[in-house]
C-alpha cells in the first residue's frame, strides 16, 4: 500500500470510525459468541500472496464486530470507563506516523519533553503539591505509564530498593535476599488485584488491611498492623492507598495514613486509577487531600479523562528514587544529553503518548474536561435516585463519583440470578462485585455518549427483569 | 469535537500523515535542539477554554517536529528499526475506535481470540515447533506483549515460580526468600540491558556469560558456570539466549545451549527481538534451529515486520507455566468463560493489537513480508561491500542480517571523533556500540523507505567526513 492508497483508505477508515461511534447504540453491547468462535471464521494460516483491502474491511464486520464488547456504547456500564475522544484518536494517528520509540531523550527529544510538560500541566490541573511538578528545577515530576498496574509495580520496586539501601546503611553485612524476606507491604483488602501482583513480582510479603464500613482503610488499623510486624522483626516499607477502589469506589483515609507512612519511613503510593480524573473539579479535589504525604501518585486519564488507552499518569516526589532503582546505560543508549532521558518504567520502548494528552487538554480546555466529569457524576446520581426510589433495592456504598453499587434486598443467589438475566438479555452490560460478603451489582457510567435517556432506559430494563424474576414461583 | 468534525479533521490528518512520510527525506533526520527546548515554546498551564484545532495542528510543526528524531527517514540508521506501514496504521485507527480493554475474554472476545489465532499464524510462518502453537487443543501458544523487556521479565518470573515449586517439592520447609537467594539466572554479556533489569526486578542473581569471537554464547562456557554455581550450593534456573544481539546482531548457539538448559532443568528463553522477523525466510530459518529446546521465545514484529509499535510476540510451550505464575481472579473479572482469558503480562489492560498483525499479514502476504526482509538484508550487504572496499575501514562482526558494525582502523578516539562529526552534520543518524573494548559504529537498515541510493549517499557522506577527519593535523 503506497501513500496514495493510504490517503484513500485512510479517509474510508475515518468514516468507518465515525460511523461506528455514531451508530454504536444499534449494536448489541455484549457479544453473543462462544469461546473459540473466531477461529473457524478465518483461515488457519496467513496468506502467501497479498490480499485485497476490501476483503479485510468486509471481514471486520464479519469476523471482528460480532465478538466485540462495545465499551463505548451508552449501554455499557461494566468495569470502569475506557476513555475515548476524537481529539485523542487524531493524536494517535500522528503518534503512529511519527512512530518514534522514546526510550531516551535522543531517540526523540519532543517525545520526552512534551511528556514532562504535559505531566506538569496535568499536575497543576489537579493542584498537586509543588514537589510533584518537574518545572525546570524540581526534583519531582511525572511520567506516562501504560497502566496503573505498571505504576504500582514501579513504585513498589523503587520502595524496595530504597528500603534495602536504608537497612544496609546501618547493617552493611545484611544481604539483599535477607532484607527482602523481612520486607512487608500493605494495601487495602479492597485494592485492585494488580497491587497484590506487584508484591508477588517483587518477591515481598503483602498484607491486606481490613476496611471500615465505607470500604476505606483507616489509620489506626494500619498503625496496629505495622507495630505488630515490627515487633516480629519485620520491616514495613510500603503502603499502596487506593482512592476510588474497583469494587465500590471507596477512598482510603490518606490524611490519616500519610503521616503514619511518613513516620514509619514507608513509601506511600496512591492508586487513583479511576477516581483521579475527578480531582480536576474543585468540588472533588478534597478527596485528594493528603497527597502531600505520598511518595508517588497515579491515575489513568485513559479511564475517565477522554485520553484513549494507554495513558496512565504517575508522579513522584523524587525522580531519583524511581530512576535510581534500575539505571543502566549501555553504550548504544548513551548520548550527550542522557540526563534528560527517562527509564521510569518496565518497558524500555514507548510511544509518543503525550500527544494525546496535549490534543485532549487543548481541544476540551480544563472547563470542558470538568464538564465531562460533572455530567457523568450527575448521571450516576440520577441512577442512584431511581434505585433509592424502589424499595425492593438497596444502595450498597456511598455514590461519590460515577459508580453505583446496588442490589436487590435479599439473597446473593437472587442477585446472581438478576445479573444473569441482564447479561443474557444483552441490552445493557454490567459486572458484579463482592462487598462484605454480599453479591452486588456495579453500575458505572462509562461511555462519553451516555445520556439521561440511557440511564432511564437501563433502569426500566432492570426493573422489568426484576419483575419477571420475582414472578418466578420460587420467589 | 463531534463526528462530523472528526470526519473532516481525520481526513486532514490522513493527508498530514501521508505527506509526512512521503516527504520525510526533506527533514533533518536528527533534531537540532537542546534539552528543555520545548518548555519555552508552549504555555506553562493547560488552557481553561477549548482551543482551536488549527492552532494545535500549526503547533505540531512549530513545537513537535523540530524535536523529532525521524525514525522513518531513509537517513536513519540508528539502534534497530521501528516498524511502520500503512496497513498497520489503518488497523491502529480501528483499534482506537473499538477502544476495548482486553483484560479478559469477556471484556472483548474478539480481542483475545484474534490474538491467539494471529500468534498461531505467525508461529507457522516462523515454522515454530508444534508445541508452541495453541490450535484448539495445544498446551502452548502465543501472546502479544508491549516490548521484549516485558517478555523477558514474564519468562524470568514464570521460571522463578517454577523453580520455587520444584525446590519446595523436595524441601517443603524452605521459604521462598531462602530459595530466591540461591537462584541464578544467566545471559550473554552481549544481552540487552533489559535482561539484567528483569533479574533486578525479580530479585535474583544474574550472571553474564562471556561470548566467543563471534559474540555468541557457547555451550561449554555456560555448562562450566552452571557446574561451578551448583557446586557452591546455588540453583541455576534460567538462561536468556539472544538471537541477534543489540550491539552486533550476534547469535547465541542455542543448539548447544538448549540441551544443557533442558538437562539442568533451567528455563530457556530466547530473545530474538530484532532478528526474529527474518526467520520467516527459509534461508534465515536455520538461525532459529534449537528453538525446540526453549520454554519461551520472543520477537518484535514492531521492529522489523512492518507492524507499528507496540507488538512484541511471545510464545510459550506451556501456557500453564506463565498463567500460573500470577493468576488472580477477583469477582469483577470473573465471567463464565474465564478459562479463555489471558493474564500473561504485567499490565492487566491491553489494546486490540492483533488487528495490526492481521492487516499487515493480509495486505503483504508472507511473500511481501519476506521481500521486505530480503531487501533490507541486501542493503546491509551493499553497505558492507562499500566498507570492505575501503582499506581505511574494517568490518567488526559478521553481517548476517540488516546490521553492519564497522570502524576506522585505528584508535577508539578516532572513531569517536568520526561519530561526533556524523552526528553533528545531521545528514544521517547512527549510534555506536562497544565490541571487545573497541568503539564501533553501528549501521542498521531501518526505514521501509531506504533504497540503494540512500546507502550510497550515506557512505559517500561518511567517507567525506573521514577525509576531513584524517586531514586534521594531529592525524
UniProtKB/TrEMBL annotation, chains A, B:
Signal sequence range: none
Protein's UniProt name: Aromatic-L-amino-acid decarboxylase
Gene name, Swiss-Prot/TrEMBL: DDC
EC number: 4.1.1.28
Subunit annotation: Homodimer.
Pathway connected to this protein: Catecholamine biosynthesis; dopamine biosynthesis; dopamine from L-tyrosine: step 2/2
Organism ancestry: Eukaryota, Metazoa, Chordata, Craniata, Vertebrata
Entry keyword annotation includes Lyase: yes
Keywords tagged on the record: Catecholamine biosynthesis, Decarboxylase, Lyase, Pyridoxal phosphate
Pfam family, one: Pyridoxal_deC
Amino acid at each position: 500500500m503506497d501513500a496514495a492508497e493510504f490517503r484513500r483508505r485512510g479517509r474510508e477508515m475515518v468514516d468507518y470510525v465515525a460511523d461506528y461511534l455514531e451508530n454504536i447504540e444499534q449494536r448489541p453491547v455484549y457479544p453473543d459468541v462462544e469461546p473459540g468462535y473466531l477461529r473457524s471464521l478465518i483461515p488457519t494460516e496467513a496468506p502467501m500472496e497479498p490480499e485485497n483491502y476490501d476483503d479485510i474491511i468486509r471481514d471486520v464486520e464479519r469476523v471482528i464486530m460480532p465478538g466485540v464488547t462495545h465499551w463505548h456504547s451508552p449501554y455499557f456500564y461494566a468495569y470502569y470507563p475506557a476513555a475515548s475522544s476524537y481529539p485523542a484518536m487524531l493524536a494517535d494517528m500522528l503518534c503512529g506516523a511519527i512512530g518514534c520509540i522514546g526510550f531516551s531523550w535522543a531517540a526523540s527529544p519532543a517525545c520526552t519533553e512534551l511528556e514532562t510538560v504535559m505531566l506538569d500541566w496535568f499536575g497543576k490541573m489537579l493542584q498537586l503539591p509543588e514537589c510533584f511538578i518537574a518545572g525546570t528545577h524540581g526534583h519531582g515530576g511525572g511520567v506516562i505509564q501504560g497502566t496503573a498496574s505498571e505504576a504500582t509495580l514501579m513504585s513498589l520496586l523503587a520502595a524496595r530498593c530504597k528500603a534495602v539501601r536504608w537497612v544496609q546503611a546501618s547493617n552493611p553485612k545484611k544481604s539483599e535476599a535477607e532484607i527482602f524476606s523481612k520486607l512487608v507491604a500493605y494495601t487495602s483488602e479492597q485494592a485492585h488485584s494488580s497491587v497484590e501482583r506487584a508484591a508477588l513480582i517483587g518477591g515481598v510479603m503483602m498484607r491486606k488491611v481490613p476496611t471500615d464500613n465505607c470500604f476505606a482503610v483507616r489509620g489506626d488499623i494500619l498503625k496496629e498492623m505495622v507495630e505488630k510486624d515490627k515487633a516480629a522483626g519485620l520491616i514495613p516499607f510500603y503502603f499502596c492507598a487506593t482512592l476510588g477502589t474497583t469494587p465500590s469506589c471507596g477512598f482510603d483515609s490518606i490524611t490519616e495514613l500519610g503521616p503514619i507512612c511518613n513516620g514509619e519511613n514507608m513509601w506511600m503510593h496512591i492508586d487513583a486509577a479511576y477516581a483521579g480524573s475527578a480531582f480536576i473539579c474543585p468540588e472533588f479535589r478534597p478527596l485528594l487531600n493528603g497527597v502531600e504525604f505520598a511518595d508517588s501518585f497515579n491515575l489513568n486519564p485513559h479511564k475517565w479523562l477522554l485520553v484513549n488507552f494507554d495513558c496512565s499518569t504517575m508522579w513522584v516526589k523524587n525522580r531519583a528514587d524511581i530512576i535510581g532503582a534500575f539505571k543502566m546505560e549501555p553504550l548504544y543508549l548513551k548520548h550527550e544529553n542522557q540526563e534528560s532521558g527517562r527509564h521510569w518504567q518496565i518497558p524500555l520502548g514507548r510511544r509518543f503518548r503525550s500527544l494525546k494528552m496535549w490534543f485532549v487538554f487543548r481541544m476540551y480546555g480544563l472547563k470542558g474536561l470538568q464538564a465531562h466529569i460533572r455530567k457523568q457524576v450527575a448521571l450516576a446520581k440520577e441512577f442512584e435516585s431511581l434505585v433509592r426510589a424502589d424499595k425492593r433495592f438497596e444502595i450498597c456504598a456511598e455514590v461519590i463519583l460515577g459508580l453505583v453499587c446496588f442490589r436487590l434486598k435479599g439473597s446473593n443467589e437472587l442477585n446472581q440470578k438478576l445479573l444473569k438475566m441482564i447479561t443474557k438479555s444483552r441490552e445493557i452490560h454490567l459486572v458484579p462485585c463482592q462487598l462484605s460478603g454480599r453479591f452486588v451489582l456495579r453500575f458505572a457510567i462509562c461511555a462519553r455518549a451516555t445520556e439521561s435517556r440511557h440511564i432511564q432506559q437501563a433502569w426500566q430494563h432492570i426493573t422489568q427483569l426484576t419483575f419477571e424474576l420475582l414472578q418466578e414461583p420460587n420467589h
